[in-house]
Design a protein that fits this description.
The chain is α/β, with parallel strands linked by helices and 222 residues long. The protein contains eight helices and seven strands, in the order βαβααββααββαβαα. The chain has one domain.
């Protein structure tokens, strides 16, 4: 319902996304000094624009910007999936933002594993041997190829083990770090459509439940 009178707010959420995938807003880590300097330069720009929060992408492709029991270090951090930067990057990101008066919100892409022209088997074999998707290939599905001919590979949102895995990822993150919020992006089925989850639908659907309603409920259920 639209309010009829304006009530002045005591706090505004003025935030920006910080995309790490493809090194869009943060460079690859080459040293602790280099990465800290790049991050502080980013915070300088955030503060100069009078913002008070960042949504930092810490899980771009079924990976992590911190040491995790559920995912490997992101290749968008060190350049190599599983590459250890040698220090607690995430702790610094959160603490330094707070020191400078900036809220730190962790941005996760819960389902996305990657996009590739490769077949599912060949793509999965490019992942780290301990990657959840590689260990559990049956939990990975592909959408229809997109306009660039890339297959969008995601964790199957309809699988109970995937739902449990995502919850575990979030629980671990908020236990380890003092983040101000959790943000899900790409929290949906592929734009290009898909049919690879029909067997999962047949297994878990409720009586009379359409595949569209079933998919929506899978997303809501997490």
């Amino acid at each position: 319902m639209i309010p009829t009178t304006y009530a002045e707010q005591t706090h505004e959420f003025r935030a920006t996304w910080v995309a790490t995938v493809f090194s869009l807003n943060m460079p690859l880590h080459t040293s602790e000094t280099q990465y800290k300097a790049a991050y502080n330069e980013l915070l300088d720009r955030v503060i100069a624009k009078n913002m008070n929060a960042i949504l930092f992408q810490v899980r771009p492709q079924n990976d992590a910007f911190y040491e995790s029991d559920y995912a490997q270090f992101s290749k968008w951090l060190t350049g190599v999936e599983g590459g250890d930067p040698g220090w607690d990057v995430m702790e610094y990101l959160v603490t330094r933002a707070h020191e400078r008066g900036i809220e730190f919100h962790a941005w996760l892409n819960p389902y996305r594993v990657g996009n590739s022209t490769l077949s599912k088997t060949n793509f999965i074999n490019t992942l780290h041997e301990q990657n959840f998707a590689r260990v559990n290939p049956d939990l990975v599905v592909s959408g229809n190829p997109d306009g660039n001919g890339l297959n969008p590979y995601i964790l199957n949102p309809g699988e109970p083990l995937v739902k449990e895995y995502i919850r575990n990822v979030v629980t671990e993150l908020i236990t380890l770090y003092d983040v101000d919020g959790i943000h899900f992006d790409d929290y949906f089925y592929p734009y290009s459509g898909m049919s690879a989850d029909t067997a999962t639908y047949d297994t878990y659907k409720l009586p009379g439940q359409t595949i569209s309603d079933w998919r929506r409920e899978n997303v809501n259920d997490v």
